[in-house]
Amino acid sequence: MERKFILVVGAGRSSSSLISYLLAQAATYNWTVTVGDVSLEAAQRRVGKSPYGKAVQFNMDDHERSRNLIEASDVVISMMPAHLHPRVAEICLAEKRHLLTASYVSDEMKAFDSQAKANDLLFLNECGLDPGFDHMSAMLLIDRIKSKGGMLTSFESFTGGLIAPETDPENPWRYKFTWNPRNIVIAGQGTAKFLQEGNFEFIPYQQLFLRTTPVSVPGFGEYEGYANRDSLKYLETYGLKGIRTMLRGTLRNKGFCKTWNVLVQLGCCEDTYQMEGVANMTHAGFMDSFLDGRSSASSPEEKVMNLFNLSKGDDVMTKLRWSSLFSDEKIGLLTGTPAQILEHILNKRWNLAPGDKDFIVMWHRFVYEIGNTSKEIQAHLTVVGEDEVNTAMAKTVGLPLAISAKLLLEGKIKTRGVVIPVQRDIYIPVLEELSEHGITLIDREID
Amino acid sequence: MERKFILVVGAGRSSSSLISYLLAQAATYNWTVTVGDVSLEAAQRRVGKSPYGKAVQFNMDDHERSRNLIEASDVVISMMPAHLHPRVAEICLAEKRHLLTASYVSDEMKAFDSQAKANDLLFLNECGLDPGFDHMSAMLLIDRIKSKGGMLTSFESFTGGLIAPETDPENPWRYKFTWNPRNIVIAGQGTAKFLQEGNFEFIPYQQLFLRTTPVSVPGFGEYEGYANRDSLKYLETYGLKGIRTMLRGTLRNKGFCKTWNVLVQLGCCEDTYQMEGVANMTHAGFMDSFLDGRSSASSPEEKVMNLFNLSKGDDVMTKLRWSSLFSDEKIGLLTGTPAQILEHILNKRWNLAPGDKDFIVMWHRFVYEIGNTSKEIQAHLTVVGEDEVNTAMAKTVGLPLAISAKLLLEGKIKTRGVVIPVQRDIYIPVLEELSEHGITLIDREID
Questions:
Q1: Chunked in runs of 10, what are the mean pLDDT values of chain A (447 residues)?
Q2: Are A273 and B338 within 8 A, CB to CB?
Q3: What is the distance, to the nearest Å, from the Cα of residue A158 to the centroid of all Cα atoms in its chain?
Q4: Residue ranges of chain B with pLDDT lower than 50?
């Protein structure tokens, strides 16, 4: 078997399972796995002592070195921040190398489609958990419904990266950072677009965390979802033209959104300007910057209670206090935007501690018509992490990418161009192998 | 007297008084006034039959023609949309021509400072009403306070372009479009930054219209102001370092902000995406796009009442109904962003009708310490428009620019570089002549 070279760029917290899988299979498939990161140490940590792996420094700003590393590989898997993907794609195109990412297809990425096709290259994106497994598992059920002659009238899908019930039981948010904290703090900025009962609906950031959807997962509990970006663009990709409801969203534990909304309304998640006097600022001082100085209230805590009409014992106040947002602790940054400062404060308690287990919940609802009757299928996936490094998030984001890379190198994926995993030649074998790793959607007909 | 050539680019609604003034003085000062606009007809309308004026087509995309017209002038006054100013400035710099605008100094504009100075050019910006007259009148009083030995501790300033009490008495908003409607619809997006009682405060868009300041103008009535962009950047420009409160804002009639806040919260002012199905959309359908389709309410009007906890007779609902936002009337656009559609709907009733008079209100409050006592000065300016063309807005925006151009051509303004009118050699003579045109600030000590 000819030796193949895989380059993984980005060795952050979501890369652990991806790299472990590739190294574990390297002997069988005759692979060499090169892991690059701006931090050589981070890359080394992921490679460990594996004889099949190699850690290198990888910095997009060093174009020549990036080009050489990409040229030396058969396929590139990028786990770097999404805004860097088009630059990776450009080099991949020039060097005729395949590219896999777990990120949303940007307009810049989309623009590579015809060139990628012309060069017989696969630029597979949105191939992680959400986006990724959600697409694949939804397509499987959509295809099943269609093959029975059913006509889909509604599709709703929510996914969340939470913490396991036994982890951090005193944490009232039931949440910790299990992927890029920055993306969590700025999540939802822009307008969510979706289709509901035949009408286009638009939710701006300022309403997003107020307009949630209740989600009940049998055997696990009650959650709530908020709408995610542009659901409309998947109408065509999923082949769902004519459907009346189409909504993709993010899942949180019940009560999360009401508290997060307070931070959104105050402007704590803004990322467009640098705050003043950060070096000497306390957590409470940070909050106070967003509260009316003319108020008669004696503290930021009281101001928040007055502004949002909350009692001291309200669940929202409990969560904010637990995150020490009203404490006199120094922030510990010299400069920062509100979003950067909020991320830093939240991370003091939302950082996964040794032994913490994260918890992935995905939920789909399909409504379809067959003959003259309306039917409903609900489906869910739950995955519990092993520990604070081998998280369910890293596993569910990384394995779809790793398996896709393997299938591609084996010549089993024929699709080319800038795509997402909604083609059968991708999702059928990927879902099959994911199932062997305990990542399986459970579906049931609802009466 | 040597003939001088003035080029005014942009012949929109705010240009009328500016151009009338220049044409009226042209004989005395031996000027030729060229008026350029993308619409030749608009330029011709402004020039009328004046023998001193010339109307031309002016389109920034025709670079060669723009360059020729700028080269043929001694000073350029740009009334075009602010984003075009840096392109005008670039040509002015190449052709060594002075430039005057009424717009905020952008970072791009600021970057021309040293080159403008090196070429002995004045790039005067923020020289209209607000920004403009507010800077000049504030500096006059700040200088007076300082010259008496007073130390300023607080400066607040609000300006609004409203409608005269006798105009459109049944209009519950007490407001119509008197300058660029687009800027009014998207006003406040971003974060307002100011200083209050020694603390930096930040108000995001979603809180802006909820955190208003009451303003009372003797003899005129009760108003409310919302914070305007970045007040902090004027700390240095005004020479106010060490001041404890610094707030610039926009003035509206009482009750305006609470209603506008409904449109902001719903996302009707977003300008980042195209809506779907605009061609067949009604006003009510537009509103419904932002409201929860799962609601049991029977109409968008009822949904708004439920969401914001308002009764049918509430003043907010009266205003929204008056603007026909819940009507079944077709919008009359084929495509548009929410902001573009909202502007179009509002303009149906907010367009100035023949005989309508607009009304400018500016209000400053200065608190200062002298010896051991704290003193306060309040000052206000009010200007009523003549009719729907010769508006108070056009007069108060245009005359400061026109007078500045005259002083510059007479050699009476020596300041060079990218500046705003906070220098005595500009604001003293400009304020003096404005006073002759009935534009005078009235100030009084408050006990």
A1: 95 94 97 98 96 97 96 98 96 98 97 98 98 97 96 97 94 94 95 95 97 94 95 93 95 97 98 96 98 92 97 98 98 98 98 96 97 96 95 97 98 97 96 97 92
A2: no
A3: 11
A4: none
Token code pair at residue A393: 């998030």
CB pairs under 8 A between A and B: 90
Measured in angstroms, the CA of B353 and the nearest CA of chain A are apart by 33
Contacts of B49 (CB under 8 A, 6+ apart): none
pTM of the model: 0.92
- Strands (DSSP E) found in B206-293: 213-217, 221-227, 245-253
Q: Decide if A52 touches B, using CB distance below 8 A.
A: no
pLDDT for res A13: 86
> Closest Cα of chain B to A420: distance in Å?
23
Q: CB contact, 8 Å: B232 with chain A?
A: yes
Q: Do B205 and A201 touch (CB under 8 A)?
A: no
Taking each helix axis from N to C end, the angle separating A315-322 and A256-266, rounded to the nearest 10 degrees, works out to 70
Nearest 5°: CA angle at A199, between A196 and A202?
A: 80
Mind giving me the DSSP string for B282-320? BHHHHHHTTS-TT---SSHHHHHHHHTT--TTSHHHHHH
* SS3 of residue B230 by DSSP: strand
What is the arrangement of strands in the sheet containing B75-78, beginning at the earlier edge strand? B53-57, B31-37, B4-9, B75-78, B98-101, B122-124, B417-419
- Tell whether A289 lies on the interface with B, counting CB pairs under 8 A: yes
> Tokens standing for A311?
């009692």
Rounded CA-CA distance A187/A184 in Å is 5
CB spacing of A203 vs B290 below 8 angstroms: yes
- 8 Å CB contact between A286 and A345: yes
Is A201–B289 a contact, with Cβ atoms under 8 angstroms apart?
Answer: yes
Contacts A193 to B, Cβ<8 Å: 273
Nearest to B331 by CA among B287, B267, B290, B297: B287
- Judge contact between B366 and B155, C-beta under 8 A: yes
Closest-CA residue of chain B to A293:
B196
Spell out which residues of chain B touch residue A267, defining contact as CB-CB under 8 Å: 191, 202-204, 206-207
Would you call A206 and B232 a contact, using CB atoms and an 8 Å cutoff? Answer: no
Q: In which residue are the tokens 């890359």 written?
A: A43
* Tokens, residue A441: 């959607």
pLDDT score at A241: 86
Burial of A185 (0-12, 13-18, 19+ CB in 10 A): buried
Q: Inform me whether the C-beta atom of residue A299 falls under 8 Å from chain B C-beta atoms.
A: no
B156, B193, B200, B265: best to mutate for the A interface, most A CBs within 10 A = B200
| Residue B328: DSSP 8-state | -
User: Alpha helices, DSSP H only, in A119-229?
Assistant: 133-147, 181-185, 205-208
ipTM over 0.90: no
Does the distance separating the beta carbons of A201 and B206 come in below 8 Å? no
